[in-house]
Amino acid sequence: MGLFSKEACVFCGTEVGMLKRSKLQTKEYICNECKRKTNPFARMDYTSKDNAQLMMDTLAQQAAEFEASFDSAENRFQSAERSFKTWDLGSHRVQYRCNTRIGAFQMISDKFSSYEHIPVFYFDMMIPYQFAGDNENLSDIRNHEIMDVNAEYVSVQANKDMDGNLTSCTVTIPYNDICIREIRLSGNVSSDSDKEIFYDLAKRINSDRRVWINNGIYDAERKSRMQRRNLGDTAAAALKAAVTGGNVEEAVKQGIDTANAIEDGKVKQGFFGKLFRK
Predict the structure, then answer these.
(1) To the nearest 5 percent, what fractions of the chain are helix, strand and coil?
(2) Predicted pLDDT of residue 272
(3) Which residue(s) pair with 158 in the sheet?
């Protein structure tokens, strides 16, 4: 099997040479055309055929849902930026935007302009990768890492030559995904001002992650207050129904429905703190 040998793409069947294909973790091959339908930051040597297919099937829907999320992000405790902000990282350009209401962001490099979809990334996955077997669930175990408001997971490494001169910088975003262990954005630099652009991008992503965490804490506390209020109102309504001969079961049912609506975010607390009218 030499440089000029051809292998069939496991997805489209096209036979391509070594320079136009990648080997998957499952030892099959994916051609460059099909690869452009996956996440550009995915490592094919970490990616199985099934996971590559899953990316092809879901990336468009994720992007559409992310775009739609901006329509309901009007809240002073949240931040959403529909337009992309651009960072020039040395030899290439990176575009980034975020919606802290849902805890997600999009990022793309002009190096990946040929890919079909701009991927969506999620803050609850932005922690150092840890392998989990098929029967393991690490979400509860690692929740303290996900919700650590003081963690600065996005880091920058500056590289110098033997004379101590800056040569390049790399922004590294850890990601706990089987196909994407980390997102690396590297570029050539020649001055401290060039380097600061890398730190600015890292600072922005770390800051957006903290806003998302604080949103979650605030929402959890708000829901707890609303649930306590609903519990008291439901008890009062049931007692009133029992005393006046009304329908106690209906009063309790309304309380349960309201509790579910609060949990689903469908009930908003009014300006004066009044939850709803009985």
Answers:
(1) 40, 20, 40
(2) 34
(3) 169
Q: Please list, in sequence order, all residues whose beta carbon lies within 8 angstroms of the beta carbon of residue 27, skipping any fewer than 6 positions away.
A: none
- Residue 164 CA to its chain's centroid (Å): 37
* 172, part of any domain: yes
Tokens standing for 106? 């999009």
pTM of the model: 0.76
What domain range includes position 152? 58-214
Asked whether residue 80 is assigned to any structural domain, the reply reads yes
Distance CA(185)–CA(202), nearest Å, equals 10
| Model pLDDT, residue 251 | 79
Look at residue 250 and tell me if it is in a domain.
Answer: no
Q: What is the pLDDT of residues 139-184, one digit of tens each?
A: 666 888 888 889 999 999 999 999 989 999 999 999 999 999 999 9
**Parallel/antiparallel/unpaired status of strands 166-174 and 15-16:** unpaired
Number of domains comprising the chain: 1
